[in-house]
Design brief:
Elements lengths: L4 H15 L9 E3 L7 E3 H17 L4 E4 L3 E3 L5 E9 L1 H5 L6 E8 L2 E9 L4 E6 L2 E5 L5 E2 L12 E4 L8 H10 L4 E4 L3 H9 L4 E7 L1 H4 L2 H7 L3 E4 L9 E6 L2 H12 L1
Parallel strand pairs: 3-5, 11-12, 11-13
Antiparallel strand pairs: 1-2, 3-4, 5-6, 6-7, 7-8, 8-9, 9-10, 13-15, 14-15
Helix pairs in contact: 1-2, 4-8, 5-7
Length: 257
């Protein structure tokens, strides 16, 4: 099925009405994970609430999986996967590299998705017509870079500290093979793969709502998204995105050691 850009814009605008007024407002932050720090804010919860309401009104038979409000009807062939603020740590730090992620799976495959960054006024989305951008500089079709060599690649990861044990050693060797490595930016780094500014993102331990929306955006722009082992990324896990199939293969081999 196709999802109209008008519906994606409606989702983006509704979520922005909840997130932007609370951004850089010094609001309360709760911790979801005892013994660690997994922040959640009122903006997370309220943005997901309005997104779910729009989806339920438009597609009442579809399922929904959200980070903050759980799942409903996920036995449906069509399931929407929501992360109202991907990058809550950036959000509470005042950094505009968070985004609202909403993706649609059909029989488990990600077929449409959007990433909205309302502070910068950007919308990255993919539907049956391809991968597209709206924002500063005007609308355009998204296309990945044609990089095939690690030596010419720009790599992002949230932080190397997420790689544990031998995986950290393999990551460090991998990073030394690329031209430029940068850290952080959560979903924004994946969007930059689709936009042709970043070549590789390697992030371990992602949840479905961290990646489902981004899969069709990257794939329809010409890139590849899988687990580190080459499996489907829709269920999350250790996720590798790359601008070209050749670069993806080289990065996957490097991460395996």
């Amino acid at each position: 099925m196709d999802i109209s850009i008008d519906f994606m814009r409606r989702i983006a605008h509704a979520a922005a009405a909840e997130t932007l007024p609370r951004f850089r407002s010094q609001g309360a932050v709760a911790n979801k994970e005892q013994g660690s720090f997994d922040p959640v804010t009122e903006a997370d919860r309220e943005a997901e609430r309005v997104i779910r309401a729009l989806i339920s009104a438009e597609y009442p038979d579809h399922g929904i999986l959200g980070e903050e409000h759980g799942s409903e009807n996920i036995s449906s062939r069509h399931v929407w996967v929501i992360d109202p603020i991907d990058g809550t740590r950036a959000f509470i730090s005042g950094l505009p590299v968070w985004g609202t992620l909403v993706g649609l799976t059909v029989d488990g495959d990600a077929v449409a998705g959007m990433m909205s960054q309302p502070f910068t006024g950007e919308l990255f989305y993919a539907n049956a017509s391809g991968a597209h951008y709206e924002g500063p500089g005007g609308p355009r079709r998204l296309t990945t870079r044609k990089t095939t060599s690690l030596a010419e690649a720009t790599l992002f990861t949230t932080t190397p500290a997420l790689f544990k044990g031998d995986a950290r050693l393999r990551y460090d060797l991998f990073e030394r093979q690329v031209q430029l490595a940068r850290y952080g930016t959560d979903c924004y780094a994946f969007a930059m793969v689709a936009a042709g500014s970043v070549d590789i993102v390697a992030d371990p331990g992602l949840k479905p709502y961290d990646i489902v929306a981004l899969i069709p955006i990257i794939e329809k722009a010409g890139g590849v998204v899988t687990t580190f082992e080459g499996g489907p990324a829709e269920r999350g896990g250790d996720i590798l995105a790359a601008a070209t199939p050749e670069l993806h293969a080289a990065a996957m081999a490097a991460l395996r050691g």
